[in-house]
Amino acid sequence: MAGVDEFARALEDTPGGGVVLTSIDAISNWARGHSLWIMPMGTACCAMELIAASFSRFDFDRHGSIPRPDPRHTDVMVVAGTITKKMAPSVKLLWEQMPEPKWCVAMGNCAVSGGIFHHDTYSVIRGVDEFLPVDVYIAGCPPRPESLQDGLLRLREKVRSESISPSRRRTVEGLLPLPGGEKR
Amino acid sequence: MTRMTIDELREHLCAAYPDLCPLFSVEFGDGVLLVDSARLREALEDLKELGFDRLGMVTAVDFGDEFELVYRLTSRSMRVGMFVKARVPRSIASVRSTVDLWPSADWQEREIFDLFGIVFEAHPDLRRILLTDDWVGHPLRKDYIDDSIIRRPDYL
Amino acid sequence: MSAECRTVVNVGPSHPSTHGVCRVLVELDGEIVRRAEPIIGYLHRGIEKMAENRSYLQVVPLTDRLDYVGSMYANWAYCRAVERLAGIRVPERAEYIRVIVCELQRIASHMMSIGSTGADTGAFTAFMYAFNQREQVVDLFEALSGSRLTYNYVRPGGVGADLPEGWVERCREFVAQHPAAMMEIDDLLFGNVICRARTKGIGVLTPHDAIGWGASGPVARGSGVDWDLRRDDPYSVYPRLDFTVPLGERGDCYDRGRVRLWECVESCRIVTQALDQLEPGPVQAEGLPRLLAPRPGDAYDHIESARGSLGVYLVSDGSVRPYRMHVRSPAFANLALLPMLAEGHTLSDLVVVLGSLDPVFGEVDR
């Protein structure tokens, strides 16, 4: 990204460079939006639908969304499943390892709000947005692969509004502290 | 061997260990041996001798002043299962481990220690298993309080 | 070799080959595993605590989320415990439907396990073939319950709804083609020389250890332990159905996989027979109150799930909520074998051994 950054900064400084940048933005966003590689953060039931989505029947590869278990290769973290207090530090660590620009999809009710595990339980974090900046929420328990597809297409729309220009870049708000303090 | 009925099991048990006989009862179609916590270990050893080669489940129930430990034993040769139950007082919640009799007790006793705080003496590796090591309290106790729990509105 | 030469490697909790959120702390001597310690609890959601504040009927959806690869089993085991506690008699048609859906569920669950054996040993194509079969079962369940994964179909006193129109024919079509598909997967996966080399003689479990450690299901039967609750502690309508229990000989990963494969073929036989014997009738017990309040006491019931004997222990204090629910999870007991089975093998075999134990972490951690 460093080269792109320098190039964008230099262009923006030149008079009229901003106009050139918008069309570069269009190209880069098109490229980014069509190759959203997934970091499958599948912890529970939704992970099964995430697997089904990437297999022959639903075939998410055709959207350019290839699951890669290595965070350093990926653009989107799909949090699929319940996040417990024991798991949250690992999720946060993996998120921090992903390179910018990155997006987060909360798949399923557990990742959205705790879902069925919202009440009465002592170990579940009520929604992954308590510590990660979530871009797309997908409801369902678990959501069908079609819902995930819809969510990823919506994310592609969101990617379209991004810019490589330093002054117009979307700033990801800093990570929130884990609920209950860093210790857990 | 054919499947043993509860009555046959009772006869078999009484013939081998007459002292355990009065403690045997039938509840919801299952044989239950209700023993004193001091004699629990002895009873379990006897039952293993009798042919109960599998410890399917160990769990505990919080009854206020006491914890009830529930052992589910299965015998492959007799094709029958039964329960052994013992109550330990809450203030001295401690019981002898059964890992040396049935290794399957290993993780299950760790789970009970984790969620109920019952100590198993002579357990080889008694640590928390499901919760984080620095967790405070034992959640399956009825009096467990945690600020992070949101009580569910009572719809029923 | 001295302890100084050992490397400690942390596998997980988010690792593609752990089949969930399991962390394994591995002590390596070169590439040889000297000690492997599974650290679980990353999906501990406190379902047992939650059940204490739900009515008996409201717990059923929670049991779906225990074993999310085979939701019907936990539904059924829980419902059997409630029925035993409350003395509910289940109509015969409902029992047959339960057997049919649970045998189909066994196919769906084993497809996941066999497929992931392929993925673990480098034969990813077999995973695709297996998943194709699984999707067909999932479609059948979707027609039945409206959901692809969490069915909430088996309820105390019967099942949620009768079979929809045309379902029996669809089901017959599926079980007619499934054995041939299994043979294909067998050729593709277990006929593959790489897969055979990666699984044969790896992670050998002796029958003695299998019994002592409380292993059940295909893990125990792969070692030749002839124990199947469907036959040895018969429940529901299984005594009226004719099936054999496949057994392994050596107790290695290969045998465990093959046992699963043959169980799927047997399940097809069971489903066919159950469909033949299915008579019209009610599918839900009459006159059940909306709020069950069984008399005080405790009950345990278990069924043979895809992973082994799945039991539910319920304590009632006479109120409308369970006083305590405990799930005897077969995956939990099977996973405890990992340190013993992985020791002495290479790190890449650890993945195969873990896959052959087929843990589902919703059920391990509850």
Textual characterization of the structure:
The complex is a heterotrimer of chains A (184), B (156) and C (366). Chain A has 184 residues and is α/β, with parallel strands linked by helices. Helices cover 38% and strands 10% of the residues of chain A. The radius of gyration of chain A is 18 Å and the shape is globular. The model of chain A has no long low-confidence stretch (mean pLDDT 81). Chain B is built from 3 helices and 7 strands. In chain B, the strands form 2 sheets. A 5-stranded mixed sheet of chain B has the order 1-2-5-4-3, covered by helices on one side. In chain B, strands 6-7 form a two-stranded parallel ribbon. In chain B, 38% of the residues are buried. The mean pLDDT of chain B is 84. Chain B has a domain of 86 residues: 2-Layer Sandwich (Beta Polymerase, domain 2), CATH 3.30.460. Chain B is 22% helix and 30% strand. Chain C is α+β, with helices and mostly antiparallel strands and 366 residues long. Chain C has one domain: Orthogonal Bundle (Cytochrome-c3 Hydrogenase, chain B), CATH 1.10.645.10. Chain C contains 15 helices and 8 strands. In chain C, helix 5 runs antiparallel to helix 6 and helix 11 runs parallel beside helix 14. The model of chain C has no long low-confidence stretch (mean pLDDT 88). Chains B and C meet through strand 3 and helix 3 of B and helix 8, strand 6, strand 7 and strand 8 of C.
Record keyword descriptors for this entry.
heterotrimer; A: 184 residues; alpha/beta; 4-stranded parallel sheet; 38% helix; 10% strand; C: 366 residues; alpha+beta; Cytochrome-c3 Hydrogenase, chain B; 3-stranded antiparallel sheet; 48% helix; globular
CATH superfamily annotation of the domain at 6-91 in chain B = NADH:ubiquinone oxidoreductase Nqo5 subunit
User: What's the story with the biggest beta sheet of chain C?
Assistant: 3 strands, antiparallel
Which oligomeric state applies?
Answer: heterotrimer
Number of domains of chain C: 1
Helix fraction of chain B by DSSP (H/I, runs of at least 4): 10-25%
What's the helix-strand series of chain C? EEEHHHHHEEHHHHHHEEEHHHH
Q: Which regions of chain C contain 5 or more consecutive residues with pLDDT less than 50?
A: none
Helix content bin of chain C: 40-55%
Structural class of chain B: alpha/beta
Overall geometry of chain C comes to globular
